[in-house]
Specification:
single chain, about 525 residues, mainly alpha, five-stranded parallel sheet, 25 helices, 5 strands
């Protein structure tokens, strides 16, 4: 590399690290014009694109860098990061396996491999990787925390505490360790100890915002376990305050309006569709925390069905069609340029991912809640698909989002007002789909699933064309791995304590109720109180 190009790259990196993104991007591109095969510039520009949410721009940059340097772990690290941020844990795992082969003495990479294996339900291998990382570096806090999380998710709570214990000593335990301790503590009789430790830790001014948010979420959960709901709500509010996840209600409304306008009753009657006749895909949509995991686990327990979890496939198809139609118009503005051939390819690509782990299943679910945005596109890709819409009391839906730490995205949960705005947009768009009917939609209320699980299960199975099977009523006995925030709930029989959960925090919800009603959302306040 020429000295001038090297100097420009170093300047770009310094600007990037200082947050001067516009200037850094300009210099990265100047480097690439002078040296199109500069892998460092490619992957750094790709990282910057991810940093500002331009994942479609990041993908070709990072893939090009990896093609030029297929055996360079630092370059491959960027591809792992891309796959994780676009919800492709399986792809990230494949790349991470390669990185560890290339760098077998890196404890950090063994730790990350353990994390990815744990996320995929490969529990024993995950622990082996964490142990390998700890052998290489006994002080690697995240490896100890990851091992404890792995064990807790398997119900091995005492073992989880033992894995954490060495890292809980000292004056300032790592916030991630304390966050996991908050989950483990109530299961091993140490709730009060955990509250004291987390309450002290949040007072440390040296802790950055994101770890501080983790601590406050843990503290909120612990207070909730003690039924100290006022203290819990205050902790959750602080947790949201320290999250750095941008979201714009104006931009979200613009996109929702574009989608509804593009899929009018008239356009749906004449829109181009793929020639896929399969009825295998079942899409479970709705607000996050609305019962999507319960519905999926119920269906996936059927001997002729499988659950694929939250897939990024429809969002991938949307992006692939953007590029296939010239890359100039965003979704849904490019819809007039679609052809059956383009939709056929996108549908085939999606099906490969959907059916990868269950190629013989008659029905496979995709429970990405945000696919409610893409019901029209789903109808174009799969004319014989079915949509299950999970509904929940608006206050329960919103408060469940507000009190849950999402690991990525979900910026609309940061405030009660933004939650109200998002909920209203979701409700209006679902009403639109019901009105224009691009596909059959079955509404499933969480409260009905709890009150009459067998009756609702029969309705769901009939809707997707499967015979009733008793195994669906014992969904909690399934050994199927669940990656989402509801992993613990779907291991238990049906319980009603989450119905009218909002009552616990009622005195704090006036801003939410006011904002929802201002948006035209019906907010019934006559629900029975929950315990």
């Amino acid at each position: 590399m020429k000295p001038a190009v090297q100097q420009k790259l170093q300047t770009a990196l310094a600007m990037h690290q200082a947050g001067q993104l516009e200037g850094a991007e300009r210099l990265y591109r100047e480097v690439l014009r002078a040296d199109p095969k500069n892998v460092n510039a490619l992957q750094l520009l790709g990282k910057m694109a991810m940093q500002i949410g331009r994942f479609g721009d990041a993908k070709p940059l990072i893939e090009r860098a990896c093609a030029l340097a297929p055996n360079a772990p630092p370059i491959l690290d960027a591809l792992v990061d891309f796959h994780l941020k676009t919800n492709r844990p399986g792809k990230a795992l494949e790349v991470m396996e390669k990185i560890v082969r290339l760098a077998p003495n890196s404890p950090d990479r063994w730790m990350q491999l353990g994390t990815l294996l744990t996320a995929e339900g490969a529990w024993e291998r995950g622990v082996e990787c964490y142990d390998k990382a700890l052998t290489l570096n006994p002080n690697l806090v995240r490896a100890g925390a990851g091992k404890a999380m792995n064990l807790e998710r398997r119900g091995l709570n005492e073992e989880a505490y033992e894995a954490l214990a060495p890292f809980l000593r000292g004056d300032n335990p790592d916030p991630h360790v304390l966050g996991i301790f908050a989950t483990v503590a109530p299961k091993v009789g140490r709730t009060d100890e955990a509250i004291a430790m987390l309450a002290a830790a949040v007072q440390n001014p040296a802790i950055p915002d994101e770890p501080r948010s983790i601590l406050y979420f843990g503290l909120g959960d612990l207070y909730s376990k003690k039924k100290l709901f006022d203290e819990a709500f205050e902790a959750y509010a602080n947790a949201q305050k320290f999250r750095n996840v941008p979201w714009s209600s104006e931009q979200a409304k613009m996109i929702h309006d574009l989608v509804a306008g593009a899929y009018s009753r008239e356009s749906i009657a004449t829109m181009v569709r793929s020639r896929q006749t399969t009825a295998v895909p079942v899409f479970i949509v709705g607000m996050p925390r609305s019962g999507t995991s319960l519905v999926e686990q119920t269906i996936a327990s059927h001997p002729d069905a499988a659950g694929a979890g939250e897939l990024p496939g429809i969002a991938d198809a949307k992006l692939a069609l953007h590029y296939a139609t010239g890359g100039k118009e965003i979704f849904p503005k490019y819809l007039p340029s679609l052809t059956p051939a383009l939709l056929d390819k996108a549908a085939r690509d999606y099906l490969k991912t959907l059916t990868h782990e269950a190629p013989k299943a008659a029905r496979v679910t995709d429970k990405a809640p945000s696919n409610f945005m893409f019901v029209g596109l789903i109808a174009q890709l799969f004319p014989n698909a079915r949509i299950i819409h999970c509904k929940r009391h608006p206050l329960d839906s919103c408060i469940s989002c507000y009190t849950k730490r999402f690991t990525f995205g979900h910026g609309f949960t940061r405030s009660l007002e933004d939650l109200a705005s998002y909920y209203a947009l979701y409700e209006r768009l679902m009403a639109h789909w019901h009105d224009v009917k691009p596909l059959p939609i079955l509404d499933v209320a969480y409260e009905d699933m709890v009150a009459d699980h067998e009756g609702m299960t029969r309705r769901i199975l009939d809707f997707i064309g499967l015979p009733f099977d008793e195994a669906c009523l014992k969904f909690y006995e399934s050994e199927r791995h669940v990656r989402t925030a509801s992993y613990d709930q779907v291991r238990k029989p049906i319980y009603g304590s989450s119905v009218a959960r909002w009552r616990r925090y009622e005195k704090h919800l006036t801003p939410l109720i006011t904002a929802l009603r201002a948006e035209g959302v019906d907010v019934p306040l006559d629900s029975e109180p929950s315990g």
